[in-house]
Amino acid sequence: MLTVTFVNLLFEVNSIFFAKMVQSSKTTVIPKTSWTLDDLLVLNGIKKLQSIGAFIAQQYSSIADVLAKPSKHPIVKKFQSLSKKDLHAEIQRGIEYADHQRKYLEKNYNVVSYFDEQYPSLLRGLDYPSLLLFYKGQLPDQSEYSRSLTIVGTRTATQYGKLQTERYIQALGQYGFIFCSGNATGIDSTVHKYCIQSQLKSYAFVACGLDKISPELSKSLMKKVSENGGAVISEFPFGEPAYTYNFIKRNRLLSGFSHATFIVESAEKGGSLITARISFEQNRPVYGLPGNISTNTSMGVNTLIKQCKAVMTLRPEDILEDLGIQVYSENNNNKTVKFDTNEEELIYSTLSYDPMHIDEISEKTDLSPSIIYGSLLAMELHGFIRQVPGSMYIRT
Q: What are phi and psi of 314, to 5 degrees?
């Protein structure tokens, strides 16, 4: 069992590390290269060099230079040892790849290279950073990364998980945070939908080419993300489907994009745990929202907290304090609520931040259905409460 001292130490380490990351992101030196974008597109299409494209473009002046200079790097050495026929085939595939990508880049899509000022600053610190990122929308200013949070969770999110996701986004958004997630149903889609609703920026990383986003529901949501000041981002070329093995590669970008990762709900073997593990290995703070110990949707995140691989958070202010961000003295949860009737006040006092069915409200207040419905409608119009699916109501 963790001692209080150990937990406080964990918080202190996260705060110090976060401060160092913020300072590092502000002082990052943008690497230089002599390669043009056309050259980089060709390089990105050479499969045998794809994983170290950024390294190649820094160390060599051209593909010819790669072939001319003996190297001890295992990937470069293997490429240099190819037969003339195989080398020609590899380079030809790179040229065809570049031609194909250019056609899409002319259709309102964008690309940013590792050597561009606009490239996400925190991604430069990865062991194998993407040489190129394709995107639609607008990337953040470098100053915005200082308050960035990746939020991920299960596709089969509960109402509890969705509501808590909204609660954290609402609170952290007031402190200038930007948010990052995937494009799946469940927690991912909740992140983007609530950011759009709240006019906050969100960024989605997908595991396929930007032209291959599916199903249509996800495609429609991603379009709204890019139109809301955020962006949909992929390191995968146009035309590439969402292969299973792409998701792990994508997850390293999810965690690498932000200063910290927040796991809301995850099953014992959920994909979100991979993102959490990668984030942990990247020495980024990982936060976990505890859930019901008897439900599978929270088993994964509860285990992360138990293993000290995620800091437990019970309220948004926990994350702010852990990252060394001063919390406003004014607490929105203490806002003054003025009621029109005594019945409204009674119903409001019965409600909480957990959804309550209208039948339970009736049972606890002993009010008639007509009075309850009228009072709920009035309070909803005032923004004091909101209705969630299943004739359930919560405080806002």
A: -105, -10
Chain centre distance of CA 63: 35
List, in sequence order, every beta strand (DSSP E) within the chain.
Answer: 110-113, 132-137, 148-152, 178-181, 202-205, 231-234, 260-263, 286-288, 311-312, 356-357, 385-388, 392-395
Place of tokens 């962006």: 231
Choose the CATH number for 11-16+136-322 among 3.40.50.2000, 3.10.180.10, 3.40.220.10, 3.40.50.450.
3.40.50.450
> Which value, to the nearest 10 degrees, does the dihedral of the CA atoms of residues 234, 240, 245, 246 take?
0
Sequential DSSP letters for 126-149: SSS--SEEEEEE-PPPGGGGGGEE
Other beta carbons within 10 angstroms of residue 377's beta carbon come to 12
pLDDT tens across 211-261, in order?
999 888 789 999 999 999 999 999 999 999 999 999 999 999 999 999 999
Q: State both tokens at 340.
A: 């029109």
pTM: 0.83
Top-tier CATH class for 336-395: mainly alpha
The amino acid occupying position 99 is: D
Name the residue among 332, 329, 331, 269 with its Cα closest to residue 303: 269
Please answer whether residues 32 and 115 qualify as being in contact, where contact means their C-beta atoms are separated by less than 8 angstroms. Answer: yes
The string of DSSP letters for 148-169 reads EEEEE--SS--HHHHHHHHHHH
Q: What is the DSSP string of 303-354?
A: HHHHTTSSEE-SSHHHHHHHTTPPPPSS-GGG-----SSHHHHHHHHH--SS
